[in-house]
Amino acid sequence: MQQGKVVAGTTNSELKRLSITQNIEINDISYKFSSRNVFDKFSMIVPTNFEELTSELAVTKYPLVSRPQIVLSNPDATVDVFFNCGVKKTHVSIADRMILYKSVVKNLNSSYEFFTARAGSRLAYFDFRSYTIDSDMYNLWFLVDLPDNTIFGGFSCLIHWQLQWHVLALQMLQTIAALPPNKE
Prior knowledge:
Elements: E1 5-7, H1 12-17, E2 23-26, E3 29-31, E4 33-38, E5 42-47, E6 51-52, H2 55-61, E7 70-73, E8 79-88, H3 94-108, E9 113-119, E10 123-131, E11 136-145, E12 149-158, H4 162-173, E13 177-178
Parallel strand pairs: 1-2
Antiparallel strand pairs: 2-3, 4-5, 5-13, 6-7, 7-8, 8-12, 9-10, 10-11, 11-12
């Protein structure tokens, strides 16, 4: 192991050592994390080698017309984080909105395996296993309330890396912060 880089393992003690403040290697890909502005509305710490998918690849990976507005992916397009912005805040609690999103996903495919669901005052998420033609996927979908709107997003990776990316994705979510409004 190189100085300053952690090879992500799967034991409890290895998972507890994972931090987005370090360089991390998962499946022979190194990840360094830094803050990135999204939609000029918020910032979030994400891997520096995550790039926005081309529209052609986004259509392939997310074939529905209602695909995410922004999809950031690792170099081999096996790990994604996606965002939709502009969802107006409502009087409905973030916990209730998360329950609604989860029920929609369950209704779309009842074979999905759901794991956890958590809701705080400004962040809510649930995670689940989905199935594709050639692999099983780990998904973590989230809502974050900002002062003027709500961010809806998700994270996905191959199920083999669920343990490592679950830890890192939750740390990434904790870094979401509203940007000051543009004064044009």
